Amino acid sequence: STLPAVAEELLREIKKAFQETSQVPDDLLLGLKFIFGPSAVPALDLVDQRSVTRVRSPSGRILYQVLGSSGKLYTCYSSCHFCTCPAFGFSVLQKSESLLCKHILAVYLSQAMGACQELAVSEEQLTNILLAEEEDEG
């Protein structure tokens, strides 16, 4: 994984606390804000709105789709920390100002809190999702 160890540990702590108490303690929320900066609160909002969908194909391929606050659907790949949103391209890749955009952080938080919607798709449907993303960027 390419996330810093401190971020990985924080997400593990959030998962553990949420499994035990169904909530995230204030100290972990502060840690989230400290490590992920301005992405933390909007990412938590996306989790609260259940905006994260885990898309799985029969071959076991998984990607995540996050309905952004603008109403646009973004595709996220947690395995390589990538999102199709403009903020990821600018703040994370070009400027290196952030570790993640709010969409990927929402994916990790949804995983930790068991708050992902689930969607099973065919291989063809998954291919169409991926090709649609390519067309948007081109």
Automatic annotation (TrEMBL):
Entry's Gene Ontology BP terms: double-strand break repair via homologous recombination
InterPro entries named among the record's database cross-references: Znf_SWIM
Example GO molecular function: zinc ion binding
A GO CC annotation given for this chain: Shu complex
Name of the gene: Zswim7
UniProt-recorded name of the protein: ZSWM7 protein
Organism: Hypocryptadius cinnamomeus
Pfam families on file: SWIM
Domain SWIM-type: 74-112
Keywords recorded for this protein, A-Z: Metal-binding, Zinc, Zinc-finger
